[in-house]
Specification:
Number of helices of chain A: 11
Shape of chain A: globular
Number of strands of chain A: 0
Strand content of chain A: under 5%
Radius of gyration of chain A: 21 Å
Helix content of chain A: over 70%
Oligomer: homodimer
Chain lengths: 214, 214
Amino acid sequence: MGIKERKERHREDLKARILEAAKKLFVTDGYEATSIRKIAAEIEFSPTTIYLYYKDKTDIAYALHQEGFGLLRERFSALVYVDDPFERLKAMGKGYIQFAVDHPDFYELMFIMKEPMQYLQAHHPEEEWPEGERVFNGLMQTVEGCRAKGYFAGMNTEEMAMLSWSVVHGLCSLHITSHFKHIAEKCSEVAIVKQDTFLEGVFQAYLQLLERMK
Amino acid sequence: MGIKERKERHREDLKARILEAAKKLFVTDGYEATSIRKIAAEIEFSPTTIYLYYKDKTDIAYALHQEGFGLLRERFSALVYVDDPFERLKAMGKGYIQFAVDHPDFYELMFIMKEPMQYLQAHHPEEEWPEGERVFNGLMQTVEGCRAKGYFAGMNTEEMAMLSWSVVHGLCSLHITSHFKHIAEKCSEVAIVKQDTFLEGVFQAYLQLLERMK
DNA sequence: TTTGATTACTTAACACTGTTAATTAGTTTT
DNA sequence: AAAACTAATTAACAGTGTTAAGTAATCAAA
């Protein structure tokens, strides 16, 4: 029967198919609504089969978190051709925000939720979040490049990189959790029609601050 | 009609007792682990009784969210005596961060989780998050005061206030979700021993940026 | 005073959730 | 052919938020 054929088809990369199904449900319904049983139904397996390939739900969450970082790095990879470090820093910020707007669910899993980070701390205590470090190192290099060109005189590279991240993360985080919306609507009197325009505006204000740091 | 009033008082009392029990469980076990059944057990009532006083769990979440804003405003109320607006802006940032460190669970409910905001949007669509607006207005006034003293020339007040908020929220958010930790530990080579010191350091870096904006 | 309505609360149940133990079917190895 | 190993299953546990239906007690009107 067809059932047997299906079982034969992809048995080796069943782990990959589980993640694929999880991702599909996750991007449409969100993480909380993506249950083990729904994932199992999607790939037409028993719910408990999932546990033969993933330790628990946070394990899947971490795998999706990694997928998200793949998407983010893909976006950032285009920016290596921006020679001027300060221009690159600006472009990274813009790209980061755009990523959060385009993939709010992934962003949530990567930077807002506690789940994957707790999983990491519990199961890989020495590995220290490689995905995050990799991206952060890229940011640090760019900040370092800015300093070499005379920007951010007398400031610590790590702290400056962390500050840059905090600004854009603060914006993205408040945007996704819809805190931003409530405030932005109130400020609409000053010709701020669209929410994204305000988001962009605040980021531009930050760039103005940086611009004066040469 | 004295009886009716007494009954009403009793009713308000029970509603308050439910919230009190919820808060107790919430600060010790966190929001997710605070179940309706546990709250009910705490006040020795049936679980369904909760629903006679609160619409659903998000209703309780919003009430706790309001409690949190009470604590935050309490903290901010001491800062009205800081006359210089720029000093007050700095003090507000420091106070905000300290609040997040002292009450991470409340902070999460107020600024990180989607739940209470979604509840607000669903049940009070026109009220527009009064707690948030009230605090944000205080921030805007302070920024306006800074501008009056020559700071932030040529910059929009709303955007500048939003930027200030985003910076500290970004820091607090990444701190609470323990993203910060993983990065901070990596940067420990540069004599950054404690996590809070790094948190403070990044905030100081932001203040340095602002300082040069006069 | 008795009847009927209202109030405050409870019990029972639904439809889920993540997760584990025990069990079956199928394939290898001995 | 028997034993061992593997992959997937069924059944079950302990919990979740939430709703419908039922039960006592209290109140107002006849």
